[in-house]
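Sequence of FAD-dependent monooxygenase (Glycomyces rutgersensis).
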Amino acid sequence: MGNRHTAIVVGAGIAGLAAALRLHRAGWRAVVVERAPARRSSGYMLNLIGGGYDAVERLGLLPALAKRDLGAFTSVLVRADGSAKFTVPQAIVEAAQGARAMSVFRGDLESVLFEAVADTAEFRFATTVTAVAQDGDGVTATFSDGSTERADLLIGADGLHSGVRRLVFGEESRFRVDLDHMVGAFPLRRVPSGLAEGSGTTFIGPHRTAAVLNLGPDRSSAFFAYRSADTEADLARGPAALSEAFGDLGGGVPDALAQLREDPGGAYFDSVSQIRMDSWSRGRVVLLGDAAWCVTLFAGYGAGLALSGADALGEALEQDDPPAALAAWESRLRPEVEKRQALARTGIARFAPPTRFHVWVSDMTMRAVTLPGVSRLIQRSIAKAR
Ligand SMILES: Cc1cc2nc3c(=O)[nH]c(=O)nc-3n(C[C@H](O)[C@H](O)[C@H](O)COP(=O)(O)OP(=O)(O)OC[C@H]3O[C@@H](n4cnc5c(N)ncnc54)[C@H](O)[C@@H]3O)c2cc1C
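Predicted 3D structure, token representation.
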């Protein structure tokens, strides 16, 4: 195909960078537009397993990412006061995850992707798209600096609150399904007090989870999820809402919340919402990643689907011209995305159990992992499920 095809990629997150990488391999030129003034680093921890791990391998990112793998850690389930209920040793966590799994900071994954495309794609930071017009031959985007770019394809990889989706497909409210929960996740500047290095504590109570991870300096993080009676009000309050929802807990939580108060801007804080659309493309505009199908953290796999979706998109564009390639790509991907979206409900029961009985069942399941032979069984059933 030579270098004659151009794609405008909106969003330099996981989906956008992976698309730029894969399209370059397919012979395309990519212009990447990112709203943020510069690349972000750090962020929350992502697990890459199954199709996500396979896509990392196919995109040639395994060697660079392996250096940033946070590895498995000792997992301690705690009571509200922070005292240990029971501990799952690191070796058992590792065995249950299997060999084809990795845990990386979102910023590290984005850095590795960025390094892989920095020399081949053109980047425009602090820029967004204000208008999109298309005809039979191509698509023209107007950028926020007033300039325009003509391309064969425009990829909206601008996340859950996608601007491309609003411009081309309609208002977010038409596609967003709220799951009535909030999530907060942020890196810890200081090693959290109250837990040993190389371990993570998790408190799971009715309607909420608080997890604090001590993997040493620059590698520690915190994660909170809870059911919210009014997600709009919580969003308006910002990350401070986490102090109200989790202020009663002990262990590493008070220190994590104190660090959040010192630097609320470094936190991810949003309502948990899925995006459900009948079609991910319109003519020469296609949505990719959370912009198209956000499955939520309750389903896991969002980053994995962004990577495998980008990889499959590049493959489809090698075979056919858009929009035929987009139709083939979507029918290949949709069953897996819909399966993951449905699994988010199971995730809610895990991260925010509806009753004390559900909490007890979840405790028992985790406790069982430590029994001899069970971790091998779990490993086998995980492999089978994938
Ligand atoms: C706490 C948490 C834990 C998670 N854990 C996991 C996990 O363990 N495993 C997993 O696979 N997934 C996980 N996920 C999901 C995963 O993080 C997302 O699915 C993934 O980041 C989606 O990538 P994306 O590139 O589609 O969107 P995003 O990461 O949201 O990137 C969008 C990019 O577009 C930019 N942008 C936004 N609007 C515009 C605009 N108008 N113009 C230009 N640029 C714009 C943004 O600045 C950003 O750079 C988790 C999510 C959360 C919140």
